[in-house]
Amino acid sequence: MKTTKQIGDIGERAAAKFLKKAGYKILGRNLHFGKNELDIVAANRELILFVEVKTRSVVSLDDISYKTRASDAVNREKRERTEQAARAYLSQNYSEKQPRMDVIEVYLLKDSEKKILAVNHIENAF
Asked: Residues 48, 95: contact at Cβ < 8 Å?
């Protein structure tokens, strides 16, 4: 069985791949600003995205309901810390692009924990 960190790393790689396929350029991953972290920073012509990635192992997609979404882990404190990190990033990396805070949920098959069942991109999540 993989550790939580290993599962998170798999999810972040899947999220980055998803964003690249959607036409975004990955500007950074796992960027730290004091205690705060940005999982992924990506951009296209108009937008700069600050993406929080949440990964869960599930037995099947039927296990996911409106009550048990991976994005539910992005609570108020996590949103505030991500926003602080985004401000720190922009203070060091000027951009005229419109910033947006997104969440990407990645669901892995529990037994293999490498097989990606679903990637859900939540735009303007907070």
From this structure: yes
